[in-house]
Amino acid sequence: MKILIVEDEPSLREIMSRALTQEHYVVETASTFAEADAKIAGYDYDCILLDIMLPDGNGLRLLEHVKQLRKRENVIIISARNSIEDKVEGLDIGADDYLPKPFHMAELLARIKSVMRRGRDGYGRDITMGNVALDPESRRVSVAGRDLPLLKKEFDILSYFMTRPNHIVDKAALAEAVWGDHADEADNYQFVYAQIKNLRRKLEEAGSDIEIKAVYGFGYKLAAADKNDPDK
User: Fold this and answer.
1) Does the predicted model carry a pTM greater than 0.70?
2) How distant is the alpha carbon of residue 120 from its chain centre?
3) What is the spatial distance between Cα 219 and Cα 228, in angstroms, rounded to a whole number?
4) CA distance 207 to 197
5) How many helices (H) and strands (E) does the chain have?
6) How far is residue 168 from each of residues 189, 212, 218, measured CA to CA in Å?
7) What burial class does residue 106 get, using C-beta atoms within 10 Å of its C-beta: 0-12 exposed, 13-18 middle, 19+ buried?
8) pLDDT (tens digit per residue) in 166-194
């Protein structure tokens, strides 16, 4: 699951980013209205943690932009401005929750899980395709009822594909979704190819009846495995 932190205070932004990363979330950050606006327009997130007081604008206007773009992101407003007017306006615009500063990280994590459970994507429920089941909350995967141990990025990749069955996924979109801000640090996509290769091997060895198929010139898609493929 990918989260965008919109917060101009460097130390709080770093603390939040570290805590969420430890919980296996893919985390991106923005410190200004303009930076956050560009990221929201160009990328998709599961949840946005939104400060109201930004150096170059009001976070509530960013929330309006999210709704104008018909984005599906869950939004939690995080602000030191704990006035009833801000809270009411934010919830009226479409925020899913409002958490006043200061707060404990444990409460922030609980709020994120809560809004995701209430969200449209059914966070916390098993995702099943063929004989493969994936639990987003416990981060467990099973094939025909047997646990399939996966590394963190392998799990993130499989989760991304299983929420988009039979959809062609571009390698750049996959890298940005799974690696977040760090995707730009790579000169090529060898890190994507290596992770997908390992994941495909593990699925096949476990007897999965789904597979990640390469779509030449486009990317990959998750589909039913071809049991008659002579190369298998």
Assistant:
1) no
2) 14
3) 22
4) 16
5) 8, 13
6) 17, 10, 7
7) exposed
8) 888 888 888 877 777 666 655 567 788 88
